[in-house]
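Hey,

The postdoc asked me to send both predictions to you directly instead of through the lab channel. I've kept everything plain text so nothing gets mangled by the mail client. Protein one:
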Amino acid sequence: MGVPERLTYLFYRYYENTCTPSEKEELFQLLLHPGHDALLRDLIDKTWAKDIPSHLQDPATADRILQYIIQQQPAVHLPPRRKPIFFRYAAAILILLSVTGLTYYFYTSHTPAPVSALTDITRPVIDQCLTLSDGSKVLLHKNAHIDFDPAFSGKTREVTLVGEAYFDIRHDTRPFIVHTGRITTTVLGTAFNINAHEKGFTVTVLKGKVKVDNGSGDFSILKRNEQLMVDPVNHKLKKIQVNAKEEIAWKKPYLLFNDVSMKEAVEELQQQFHTSITLANPAAESCHVTASFTQGESLEQIIRVLSKINNMEYRLIPGGGFELNGEGCK
């Protein structure tokens, strides 16, 4: 499925209120790409008259509405090259997609909402999970944010990070590069955590390998359970052995399975929930799973999703634990 078809599909999925959280994040990333403006205008033309009351939208109101909606969405930063007219189109499409709530709020109220009612809203400081266009997953810690080309149209996949984030990178022939000031972290496919703050820089590797360059000609290669700290003054590198999972305890409530085997997923679930999970069919161990659980789902809810993904069934074992049965992906 090409990008135009994917954007159209996600547009109507959101419009019908049937898209998943990851699809919602992907849609808002695509909305920011300047090359999609013509398609967005066409989608707006086809749906605007049908569902939105006739109303001439002035630019100031459109900008206020867009800013309000963006505050409710995942942390995405608009590229500086976007023109003011984009805000009017984006506001229109986002109002359309939010027709069940915001349309009523903005267009049926007899008294227009004052600007302060929209701009003074405090955004919750929460962790947020993003699924990038290449299938990689990024878990942003609290008020962290990243800037990047949503389409990854170049020969490399590059993002700029401010704050702390956990990355689970989908393998690709194009290197994945994280910029944090003068420091660059390069990977091909791995899971790692970066904490970039005023007092220094720390990268912790959970699996795979990464290369960290301090911008002064020095670099270090890290592997699983290794951590690198960069001094903020002289930029010297210091590598140590750590228990990676303990070092990034903030991620513990979240589970990100990015094209991992069922065996790996089950092992992680057993460690996190301290219970027994059995795959009755050994062949199912090699089935692959891609799923994110960031809403405090119970173990049974997670088991139910993993079972459906691989055409399996599950049952509770007397005395505790779960057993998954079926042919799986075979």
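Protein two:
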Amino acid sequence: MNILVTTIRGFEEYAAQETELFGCKVKELRQARVLIEGNENCIYVLNNFARTINKVLVLLGRENVNGLEDIYRKAVSLDYTFIKPNQSFAIRAERSGVHDFTSIDISRAVGQAVIDSYNKGTGKRLKVDLSTPDVEIEADVIGSELFISLNTTGNGLNFREYRVYNHPSSIKPTLASSLVIMSQWNGLSLIDPFVGGATIPIEAALYAFSSPVRPSGNFNYKKLSFYNKEEEDQAFKKINKKFEVKEKIVGVEISRKHFTGALSNVKSANLENNIELILGDSVKIEFQERFKFLISNPPYGIRSGRKEKVLKIYELFIKNLDKVLEERGQGVIVTTEYKKLSEFLRERGYKILKVSIGLHGKLWVGAVLFRS
């Protein structure tokens, strides 16, 4: 079975690394997608435990296309009899690139193809429900390539149920988890000096514990014909902790409002015993001990004020970094100002190991991996 998982553009390699931890074979990395080979167990496990992905899709068809007629031709050739006659369906379409058709046009062409194919194979006409369908089929055109997939997730996993407070410049949880993997954190001392709503510390702890991403267990795959509860339970029994969190994860936040919100998120995630939050200024604060790892999403972008002010914060913090990070300590910082950040780090003698550039919302950001 070919499975597509969607992730953050530019950070596909970390989703691929996490996917392979669950025994699913990575075949190809695409723009914001990872193509893997697996079975139903991969669908169960990735939906429930993979923290770097947004959706898990069963790939039904893939082909180069040139216009709507090609899209319809490919879509109508596929088998949709996995949809039960009493179930409704909807098409969710996206496109990336320059085309003479819209996403709405794709939806119409593929929707008609599904109805025609199903009617030919079963003699029945499927119901369309655009708001709350039983089955969601995704039709994505990337450049000249069409992907038709079955959505086994439902609403994207990027929404986390623990998040009761939303910081105005919050990092996507999938990106936060990607940074955790990028940092190579292994459970030793960890700090986020610009903690915001505490997404990074929470995602780090839940990643280490292999905690469920969506505790409610509300997934589309449970409506699909292949779903087997006993097999799902057996797959879950093989999930173990990745490693022990040996010391409390520390987060620092200068704003009392965001500090209070971060505390609410930590409590909602049941991680009060694993995460310590400090109200203070990371540029000035004096820690009793230094940390082995640092992962952070400092201020940047329109909501964080003038660029000059943001860069000054970075410069002052990097000057103080030797009091925060241990010798041979390792860190990851993500920002739109990754070039200037890298310059500040090099000036202070830090080694830049890697820069991963990707799309966070509508902003291009760089995650800078460095070592003292």
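Summary for protein two, as requested: The chain has two domains: 2-151, 173-210+241-371.

Thanks,
C.
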